[in-house]
Amino acid sequence: MADQTEDALIREVNDELREEQMMKLWQRYGGFVVGVALLVVVIVAGYQGWKHYTTTTSQEEGERFYAALQLADQGKLEDAIGAFQNLAGDASTGYGVLAQFQQAILKSDTGDIPGAVALYAQIAKEQISDPTLSGLATVLGTTLEINAGGYDRAALELRLQAISGDGQPYRYTARELLGLIALDAGDVATARTQFEQLANDAAAPQTIAQRAADILQSLSVQNLSTN
User: Fold this and answer.
1) CA distance linking residue 112 with residue 100, whole number of Å
2) 51 pLDDT band (50/70/90 cuts)?
3) Is-above-0.85 flag for pTM?
4) What contacts 13, CB < 8 A, 6 or more positions away?
């Protein structure tokens, strides 16, 4: 009886230790995607806006977009959000979707995470015919939800799985996020499988493969320390 009690106590301590280590691992790797994703949106959306600008010579919309950026640079975030929203509502070129992305970024910057997430979901739906823009919106939206916490795991996994298939432009980022979601939920087996696939995929971007390898190494160290 005493042995059973002792075993139960040891298991409880190990479980608590494992949970604490998982939290530390999540804190180390969970937030890295935001900066990368925001850099991607500037590059991709900026290219889209410029491409449409040069093909349609929409100088007026370009000037409105630039003016909204200036407001943001001056710290007038609410005014900038309104300006981007107005531009997104009546733009006839690529500046419309570019304005939506910038509006979502600013909403996030002001702490309106639900508003930003909803806008990314709207962009993903509206741009469904363009996997680059739709996938990017999905990545950015789910990343915000992951870092905010309290999300619906099944719902996020469903959205990410839709853009994680071969041929999808953001498949590796989506797979990485799926691994992080599993890690955050304490589902180590699923997380390990996801990161092993990324680490061993010769076609995966080097930075993603390396992060996956680092996480696998951390998981192995934790496993040894709790056994």
Assistant:
1) 15
2) low
3) no
4) none
Model confidence at 17: pLDDT above 80: no
Q: Which amino acid is at 23?
A: M
Q: Give the pLDDT confidence of 74-112 residue by residue, as tens digits.
A: 999 999 999 999 999 998 878 888 899 989 999 998 999
Measure the CA–CA gap between 99 and 97, rounded to whole angstroms. 5
Residue 93 carries which DSSP code? S
Burial of 201 (0-12, 13-18, 19+ CB in 10 A): middle
Greatest distance between any 2 Cα atoms in the chain: 82
Q: How far is CA 60 from CA 64, 65, 74, 141, in A?
A: 6, 9, 21, 29
For the cut 50, the answer to whether the pLDDT of residue 156 exceeds it is yes
Direct distance between the N- and C-terminal alpha carbons of the chain, in angstroms, rounded to an integer:
22
The secondary structure element, H or E, covering residue 62 is helix 59-73
User: Phi-psi region for residue 165, left (φ > 0), alpha (ψ -120 to 50) or beta?
Assistant: beta
Distances 6 to 2, 18, 227 between C-alpha atoms, Å: 6, 18, 15
Residue with tokens 């390990």: 192
Averaged confidence pLDDT in the chain = 79
Q: At 225, which amino acid appears?
A: S
Task: Give me the helix-helix angle, 32-56 and 171-184, nearest 10°.
Answer: 150
